[in-house]
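Quick one: examine the sequence and fold tokens given here and explain what the tokens say about the fold. Here goes:
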Amino acid sequence: MQRCKAAKYLQTLKYHFMIQQKKIPVSNIFSILIMALALLVIFNPNAKGYLIRGLMSLGFFQPDPRGYVKHQENVANVPDIQFKDAAGNATSLSTLKSKVVFINYWATWCPPCIAEMPKINELYKKFRNDPKVAFLLVDVDNDLPKAKAFMLKNRYDLPLYLQDSNVPGTLLGGTIPTTLVFDKEGKLIYKHSGAADYSSEEFEKFMRNLD
């Protein structure tokens, strides 16, 4: 008896579903799904980050090291920017001179920052034992506990830093993430605003040629 009732119930559901399919064109259903995805991306930073990350895997957001020359001309005299690491130790661009310095300005709420972080982590692993290369992941909110929690949650092993002086607009405008690379002489030779796949072979080669 119960099986008969269940079968009738399933038939009823199938009937209603077929009617709804006839009432709503497939194109409309597709539009609704696209709209729902768009709303999810707009209001959920993690979702937007995952979307950008997916596009990276398809070859989008590739950094172009060949475009670095114009940034040398824009920033002739870079000020001695100050930083503090997670332990409170002070450092600066001048103390890091003689090293290749990779600086990334980011925030935990920034979708493009979230998207590119795994790629930066991959790049860092390739250079972590190289004493001639330094990585600084600078939280623009200066919220060390939140930044630490983010890194721990995602199992990133990146060196966290806080900004301890003003940064000129020529280096950091109103966009994050912003990535800067300085050579061993302290010259800015690469600047990029927005997400990028820094784990690419081309960018690794670019970094090694500076080392």
